């Protein structure tokens, strides 16, 4: 790969990462309010970033998203912003988006032509990572038992996340050949 091709590839990767960071921000504005964790479309775009961009670029997309919120843009669920959100009860989910997107991407990259089943498995694992990081911080910051944190931070979202997972699999399977990094 020559220098020009490498530069174009890196630029394309950064543009896609920025785009998926922005899509995640848009997904945060579509909210079904629940306490303490609202339902949004953020995980749909986190999942798509992982499958379509691969591990590093997907994680970068979510770092972009989180940084936008930290600097004060109202891109977190419900139009919230600031560093306090990252350290609050729901901040673990934001950190989980970064780690989950990376893991989804790495699992997807492990296959030259990932099948529908492989992509589904990658998304399930990535979402489990998001839940794990989110529930851990929710439990610690809100002083909830792990069971209580699971009951308020995972159980109400399972059905919606299942729908988003199916949508992400179908969308990603359709678009995966158009995102050439």
Automatic annotation (TrEMBL):
GO molecular function, a single term: biotin transmembrane transporter activity
Keywords carried by this UniProt record: Cell membrane, Membrane, Transmembrane, Transmembrane helix, Transport
Subcellular location: Cell membrane
Chief location category: membrane
Ranges that cross the membrane: 14-32, 44-77, 83-104, 116-134, 146-173
Any Pfam family: BioY
Stated family: Belongs to the BioY family.
Protein name as it appears in the record: Biotin transporter
Species of the source: Syntrophomonas zehnderi OL-4
């Amino acid at each position: 790969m020559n220098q020009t091709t490498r530069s174009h590839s890196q630029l394309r990767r950064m543009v896609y990462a920025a785009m998926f960071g922005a899509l995640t921000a848009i997904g945060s504005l579509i909210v079904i309010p629940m306490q303490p964790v609202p339902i949004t479309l953020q995980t749909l775009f986190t999942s798509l970033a992982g499958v379509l961009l691969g591990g590093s670029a997907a994680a970068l997309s979510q770092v972009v998203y989180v940084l936008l919120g930290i600097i004060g843009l109202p891109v977190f669920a419900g139009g919230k912003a600031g560093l306090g959100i990252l350290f609050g009860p729901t901040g673990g989910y934001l950190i989980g988006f970064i780690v989950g997107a990376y893991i989804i991407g790495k699992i997807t990259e492990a296959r030259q032509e990932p099948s529908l089943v492989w992509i589904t498995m990658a998304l399930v694992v990535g979402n489990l990572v998001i839940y794990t990081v989110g529930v851990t911080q929710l439990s610690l910051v809100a002083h909830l038992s792990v069971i209580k944190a699971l009951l308020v931070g995972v159980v109400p979202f399972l059905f919606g996340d299942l729908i988003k997972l199916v949508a992400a699999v179908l969308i990603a399977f359709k678009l995966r050949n158009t995102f050439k990094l």
